[in-house]
Amino acid sequence: MRRFLDAAAVLEAKLATLLVQLPPFLRKDSSALEAFLATYSSQARLAFEFRHASWFSDEILELLQKHRAALAVVEKEEGDSAEAPRQATGPFVYMRLRKGNYSNA
Q1: pLDDT in tens, 60-74
Q2: For residue 71, what are the contacts with CB-CB under 8 A and spacing of at least 6?
Q3: SS (H, E, C) the chain
Q4: Where are the domains of the chain?
Q5: With bands split at pLDDT 50, 70 and 90, how would you rate the model's confidence at 82?
Q6: 86 to 14, 42, 74, 93, 94: CA distances (angstroms)
Q7: How would you label 84-102 residue by residue, b for 16+ Cβ within 10 Å and e otherwise?
Q8: Which of 20, 23, 32, 66 ranks highest by number of CB atoms within 10 Å?
């Protein structure tokens, strides 16, 4: 992550939010998330896309709030097993639209 942040620093003001997407097989590990957030949340604006349902707990939402990180609102696709609660955890919202075909409405 340190190397990534160093490389991304060249974007300067254009660098907005970094999406941290976890694999669908990765189950909740609140200690690892706390350590990650304690290290990096002050260095970048972070949004998290958890893809395993075990992450959607009050404990994890509270950790995100504590570190001002967003729980990504991700448009569910057919076959997805987990859907994130729609709850603001940071001072910003990160929405990931995935379907591709949208009407003007």
Answers
A1: 999 999 999 999 988
A2: 47, 48, 50, 61, 64, 84, 85, 87, 88, 89, 90
A3: CHHHHHHHHHHHHHCCEEEEECCCCCCCCHHHHHHHHHHHCCCCEEEEECCCHHHCCHHHHHHHHHCCCEECEECCCCCCCCCCCCCCCCCCCCEECCCCCCCCC
A4: 2-96
A5: low
A6: 26, 24, 9, 10, 11
A7: beeeebbeeebeeeeeeee
A8: 20
Residues 6 or more apart in contact with residue 27 via CB below 8 angstroms: 52, 54, 55
Under 8 Å between Cβ of 87 and 71: yes
Enter the pTM of the model: 0.84
* 8 Å CB contact between 36 and 60: no
- Closest C-alpha to 82, from 56, 64, 60: 56
Can you read off the two tokens belonging to residue 51? 């893809």
